[in-house]
Amino acid sequence: MAQSPSKTKKNTAGKVNKIEKSAFGTLPNGSKVDLYTLRNSNGMEVQITNFGGIITNLTAPDKKGKYANVTLACDSLKGYLKGVPYFGALIGRFGNRIAKGKFTLEGKEYTLATNNRPNALHGGRKGFDKVLWTATPIDAAEPQLKLNYTAADGEEGYPGKLDVEVIYTLQKDNSLKIDYKATTDKTTVVNLTNHTYFNLSGDASNDILNHELSLAADKLVPVDATLIPTGELTAVAGTPFDFTKPHKIGERINEANDAQIKYGKGYDHCWVFTDASNKLKNVASVYEATTGRVMEVFTTEPAIQFYSGNFLDGSAIVKGGVPAKFRSGFCLETQHYPDSPNQPNFPTTVLKPNETYRTTTVYKFSVK
Ligand code: BGC
Predict the structure, then answer these.
(1) 66 in ligand 1 pocket by Cβ < 6 Å?
(2) Which residue's CA is minimally distant from atom 4 of ligand 1?
(3) Residues tagged active-site
(4) How do residues 151-199 score in pLDDT, each as one tens digit?
């Protein structure tokens, strides 16, 4: 049942609501921004704002049962408005890079802002991470936040009015499920994801180099110096990109004679899953030994951008006034391959008016 529990923290049965709404601030244009707090019965908490659909807090237990925020996130709306590199945000209409901000669809060329010169990145100057979504809290046993946004035909240069719906569900098993859905009135391209930076130590002043990562991916999408795919897929075996068995993120990240590592200044690449099906499958697992925290990623998508925070430089400030320094967070952005609109051999990202785009990703937290 949809309700706005802002007025009271208790529902009619006297139980604490599993979802609560509070004020998060005001945008420069006067729009009010809200914050929703979702809780499950174990004590896990996820906070999401309708500005950019940003996850501003996500707690997970350590091996002593202590819950702590495991994401890079700001204390206030102001922090996000100062400009942070997509902390916690929903990304669209097209996640990742499009070469030189141009693509052709049904014979017509489209031009996007080259906001990551010389390329387009993450939906443009004002992508889905910077818009106000319409939020509907759903106070169920597994609380949900439904977010809706309609991108206009031509918005950020993309064709077609796109109706987008994202549902965050905090599940009983300490997982956060994200269901994405979109429909269009003209042929367009879509690649939605979430850009949360994780630091499973629960302390953003640590780097993430000792986290152990495994990826169920035997191929990489190699890129050029501007991080645009060359068009081929290469085997990860025998390279610093082989995470088919767990490796510490820091183990091979500075292998300067690997051209791909050099281009990404570390890891900033798209891996292609060995299982190419669109079933919900376990594609990644991360372990942080000092806290025992484990995060597993499940998705219906064919690929994942693993970004090791190489462009973090301490200028963005996270909770408690902590500078988000070099490699203090990593992203696992489930998605289609970068630059797909210009790559005829990649799985298509085209969405037609009679079709519905649907993907699901789950981030599940446990300890070992
Ligand atoms: C990209 C990085 C970029 C970051 C945003 C990631 O998804 O792959 O290259 O720097 O987003 O800051």
Answers:
(1) no
(2) 85
(3) 195, 333
(4) 999 999 999 999 999 999 999 999 999 999 999 999 999 999 999 999 9
